[in-house]
Automatic annotation (TrEMBL):
Protein topology in the membrane: Multi-pass membrane protein
Keywords recorded for this protein, A-Z: ATP-binding, Cell inner membrane, Cell membrane, Kinase, Membrane, Nucleotide-binding, Phosphoprotein, Transferase, Transmembrane, Transmembrane helix
EC number: 2.7.13.3
Name the UniProt record assigns to this protein: histidine kinase
Phylogenetic lineage: Bacteria, Pseudomonadati, Bacteroidota, Bacteroidia, Bacteroidales
Species this chain originates from: Phocaeicola vulgatus (Bacteroides vulgatus)
Length: 413
């Protein structure tokens, strides 16, 4: 079809992906169908499924925030998917409707204005990609600013992570002249901050209990503030099965795998802002490689945690105290998960511990944590998993004891 239409391909794709993802959650058998057509200057597409359907009562509240439907229990998320989808549709001045019958399936209809553009596209654009060049985001899912940033301008960063020690460490890496850092522990804090202040980059953890990084990205794109629509978002993750291309295809501007170095951190920020912030002043900690066996002796390198304390003994002690407190909580949670034989919780805790223990060079424990992390999504717990979990719990206690000694014994000059 040799015609040009004016629309926002990024948001249209996001709406379709959200609805397809929702259909997959509710459809165990049968199929899912996507249909699309142009009707009187409107794009009309529908996504139907043969899933469990939605009751009339639930249809009345399905587009409300934090609504979890009965048959979606066990699915990861915070009940925001359809609320976000509706906001995106309204942002595009469209409409969304639902037809559903319980036990027979559902069909979502989306109507979006899609006016026809100039009959002759810009002659400078040629080839098959000419009609498909996004009008707003670039290949990374962000828009580039028209005006370059002046070197004298400070850079404003906002960071979210549910792990307090990881949040403290990353903040310490970022803090330096010319950089302001705002820290958030919960999604609600972040969304409120974005409504009140303007930032240059958001760095977000991916695996968070209240709302994962993918849902968070969708949520911030629905905020009414216009600049938030182009805010570069960098994913911070310990997931070895997701590379940068994967995150960029989902709208992120970049990705850093934990544990990352200070140079990697500021390189990623430079790539999405063009602002070159010198990564100097704090040494990059040495990260010991993991070994496949369980050595009898290991030396933990806590300087990897305290390297960013600017030679301030009290700041270093505070980082270690936070590490001890958070690691104790993780050990207790793992003990509780083991007692309940909850493999999902065990692997989630292992996922959280792995980057920090890698930084410390906890070589005895790293192989077991890696084994657990690679089994995320597994629900059954076998004898090998029980054995490794008990071993991890023992090693966590040893690491905590060593961390306590670092506070009790002052550093030698």
């Amino acid at each position: 079809m040799n015609r040009v239409y004016i629309g926002d391909p990024f948001r249209i794709r996001q709406i379709a992906e959200n609805l397809l993802s929702n259909a997959l959650k509710f459809t165990k058998e049968g199929g899912i169908t996507l249909r699309a057509a142009l009707e009187n200057g409107q794009l009309h597409f529908s996504i139907s499924d043969t899933g469990c359907g939605i009751s009339q009562e639930e249809q009345q509240r399905i587009f409300q925030e934090f609504t979890r439907l009965h048959n979606a229990q066990g699915q990861e998320g915070f009940g925001l998917g359809l609320a976000i989808t509706r906001k995106l549709v309204l942002l595009l001045e469209g409409d969304i409707k639902i037809e559903s019958e319980q036990d027979k399936g559902s069909c979502f209809h989306v109507y979006l204005p899609l006016p026809e553009g100039p009959s002759h596209p810009d002659e400078n654009l040629s080839g098959p990609g000419a009609e498909h060049t996004p009008a707003s985001p670039d290949a990374t899912g962000i828009r580039q600013t028209d005006t370059p940033r002046e070197d004298s301008e400070p850079i404003h960063l906002i960071l979210i992570d549910d792990d307090r020690i990881q949040l403290q460490l990353t903040t310490a890496m970022l803090e330096r002249p010319g950089v302001t850092v705002t820290c958030c522990h919960h999604p609600e804090e972040l969304l409120n901050q974005l409504k009140e202040k303007r930032f240059d980059v958001l760095l977000t953890d991916i695996q968070m209990p209240a709302m994962n990084g993918f849902d968070l990205l969708k949520a911030i794109r629905t905020l009414d503030t216009s600049w938030v629509q182009t805010l570069p978002v960098i994913a911070l993750t310990a997931r070895s099965d997701m590379d940068e291309n994967y995150f960029c295809s989902h709208g992120f501007a970049g990705c850093l795998h934990k544990p990352f170095t200070i140079n990697e951190l500021f390189t990623a920020i430079f790539q999405v802002t063009g602002k070159d912030v010198p990564a100097t002043g704090n040494p990059t900690p040495h990260i010991a490689p993991a070994k496949e066996n369980h050595p009898q002796q290991e030396t933990l390198d806590f300087s990897a945690l305290t390297a960013f304390s600017e030679d301030d003994p009290e700041a270093a002690s505070e980082i270690l105290r936070t590490f001890i407190s958070e690691t104790k909580k993780n050990r207790e949670c793992m003990e509780e998960a083991l007692a309940k034989k909850n493999m999902e919780d065990i692997t989630a805790i292992a996922h959280k511990l792995l980057p920090l223990f890698t930084m410390l060079g906890a070589t005895r424990c790293i192989p077991a944590l890696t084994w657990m992390e690679q089994r995320r999504g597994t629900t059954e717990i076998g004898e090998e998993a029980i054995e490794k979990t008990n071993f991890i719990i023992e090693e966590i206690e040893k690491v905590i004891d060593e961390a306590k000694k670092q506070i009790e014994i002052p550093n030698e000059a």
